[in-house]
Amino acid sequence: MFTDWGIDPIPFVITVWAVGLYVLGVAVLSRRGDAWPLGRTLAFVVLGMGTFTFATASGLGRYDTTLLSVHMVQHMLLSMVVPLALALGAPVTLALRTLPAAPRRWLLAVLHSRVATVLAFPPLAFALYVASPWALYFSGWYDASLASPFVHQMMHVHLVLVGTLFFWPLMGIDPVPGRVGYPFRVLLTLMTLPFHAFLGVTIMGQSTLIGGEHYLALREGPMGAWLPPAIDDQHLAGGILWASGDLIGALFFAVLFIQWVRSSMKEAAREDRRLDLAERRGAG
Question: Where are the beta strands (DSSP E) in the chain?
């Protein structure tokens, strides 16, 4: 897990550019004398891109085509933990504060475009998020990812992008389309849990192997001496999906609750200031 590392080109290039541009933006703000919360930097660089790198380059990345259970751990990190951390890092806000005038206008145009509005529409984003895993494991997509390194790497990027589309408007603090009230955010997050659980139970209960040709071929070679039976590993993978979905869902609820409380406190403070101002004007 921690000693067998390798580089996949596409995730590596994405990581270098994302971390480099984010750190550059923080440096620009620092040179101007403007503050940028350390927590946001740690969320984006360490927890977000760090988890992305760990999931794709560590032992998880080396053995994700050997054991379905290892892939499932990777799947949950890429589709839930990484999008949440990136959203909390507020990279769009950082870009709007540091970009020159012309690129800033382009970014604002993208944020206000119809495409962005449609993609961030909560019901559509929710449908994409819950349907993608079913399409991945119950179509030829997963077999293609086992056969092609390019498809495999793009699958990792896809998991992050779909998770980002869904969770960014719910958990993030950037000015992105699709922002809804906190009660609806909690409802949408709650609705994802049964889908993960049902998919996990379905994978645990089925007798047909996912990626069966690939995994059975591995057990005919030298690795067959230590690999567990493919069906047992598939049952473990389903259990990981089921259990980790609930655990990470609890983390999401904690983040949403903290954001909701902070938003309520800020709203109460604004209302107090408004009432104080109205009272002073009335007294005058």
Answer: none
| Cβ-contact 105, 96 below 8 angstroms | no
Q: Under a CB-based contact definition with an 8 Å cutoff, are residues 178 and 234 in contact? A: no
Whether 140 and 53 have beta carbons less than 8 Å apart is answered as no
Over residues 201-254, the pLDDT tens digits come to 899 888 888 988 888 888 887 877 888 888 999 999 999 888 877 777 777 777
The encoded tokens of residue 52 equal 């992305």
Distances (CA, A) of 179 to 110, 161, 165, 183, 188: 16, 17, 11, 12, 12
Distances (CA, A) of 149 to 29, 46, 153, 246: 39, 26, 6, 30
CB 253 within 8 Å of CB 219:
no
- Residue 161 — pLDDT band, cuts 50, 70, 90? very high
pTM (2 decimals)? 0.83
Contact (CB, 8 A) for 189 and 253: yes
